[in-house]
Amino acid sequence: MDVFKELFLMQQAYATLFSLTNKVQMVGDKYLEGLTSRQYMAVVAMAHLDEDERTINNIARKLGTTKQSVKQLIDIMEKKGYIKTVPSTKDKRAVNVVITEEGTKVIVKCTENGIYLFADLFKDFSSNEIETLWKLLKKLYHFDGEEQDGFESEGFLDLGVDPSEFEQKVLKEFGKRRILKKEL
């Protein structure tokens, strides 16, 4: 492959990734009720951290962003009454982020809507295509040698709802929305 074509493809991939990130964030903001996409992802990061590890630094690390960026998200959610910060039991310099009762209600609805967002975003993708995309994105994340501290493990937040009942309801609707392409 010639260098000009390679450079062109890289520029196109970068520009597409940049604009796609913005587009997906805007669409996600419309789906999620009560939280923005970025705020919701902060909650998802919290679900993938132990309760006593839910510090601003750890949430930032999970999201691949700065502590200052997460602090802004946390401050906004705290003003809305969805979360509160409490002193860390492990590190006197840190605070842990805790979800309030009001936050729990919003997060339950956002989680449901987030699953429907995924069904709609990936409606034209087969399972194999989604898996390939995920692998390629993780490879791109690693461009600087840093591994993504991902979300592969089962996340958990105590949201005060029966998980099996919630999953059954949401997965039924997800199945209706998701038309699986036949795998070749």
Characterise this structure.
Pfam families: MarR_2. InterPro entries: HTH_MarR-typ (IPR000835), MarR/SlyA-like (IPR039422), Tscrpt_reg_MarR-type_CS (IPR023187), WH-like_DNA-bd_sf (IPR036388), WH_DNA-bd_sf (IPR036390). The structure is a single chain. With 184 residues, the chain is mainly α. It folds into 2 domains: 1-31; 32-177, Arc Repressor Mutant, subunit A (Orthogonal Bundle). The protein is built from 7 helices and 2 strands; from the N terminus they run ααααββααα. The protein has helices at 3-31, 37-47, 56-63, 67-79, 101-121, 127-141, 163-177, and strands spanning 83-87, 95-99. A two-stranded antiparallel ribbon has the order 1-2. α1 (3-31) crosses α5 (101-121) and α2 (37-47) packs across α3 (56-63). The chain is globular and about 55 Å long.
What labels would you give this structure?
184 residues, mainly alpha, Arc Repressor Mutant, subunit A, 2 domains, two-stranded antiparallel ribbon, 7 helices, 61% helix, DNA-binding
